[in-house]
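Researcher: Please generate the 3D structure of the following complex. Treat every line as part of one assembly.
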Amino acid sequence: MSRKSILTALVVCCFALTAVVAQAGTITIANAGFETPPDVLDGPIKIWTVTGMTANSTGPLGGVTPFDTYMGILKSGNPSNPGSIKQTLMDGVNPYHFAAIGDSVSISLYEARRDDNAWVGHGVYIEFTNSDTTVLNTYQSTVDPGQTWTLRTLTYTATTASDLGKDMYLTIANTTTSQSPWYDGGVLVDNVSASYTPIPEPSTLVLLAAGLVGLLCYAWRKRR
Ligand SMILES: [Ca+2]
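Model: Done. Output below.
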């Protein structure tokens, strides 16, 4: 194998690897840090679709150190109508859709909890649903984060053809209950972010395999 062939194989490998890595993307979450202020202190969270009792806040935060200027407070409210916020997952200006089985989406956020009441259950609840209202995956805190901001994540990977080509929604809720259903049911959330990772294109994998086979051939010939 000539020096030129080796170089070609290496270049092909590099391009293929770059293509694999470069395809991950960011999902747009509007007002993801809750920094769009409410009209009044502790008013409803803006931009998100709000259900039950939820608020932007600067405090009082029940002993939690503020994450930054505004945080989302998900009030526990009535257990059958927990404070929740919802948003369509957007790829730029269009809703994000799974294109192939193996594509995945991930969400991360920070959670903390006020310390000032008797709690039933734990903290934040996160859910992916699609336009068929199929629940794709959920996360429920099983350990109280207390007053410490704690990272929570949830991922869903498309597994069937029925997952493909549909709008998807993120819901963040507080499923706890407390003695005082209005103000004291505070699960605090902030810094919501999301991303998607497509399964590598078959053509990309073929290129990668071709480059690797080329290198292996060279190594084998050189040993002889
Ligand atoms: Ca914030």
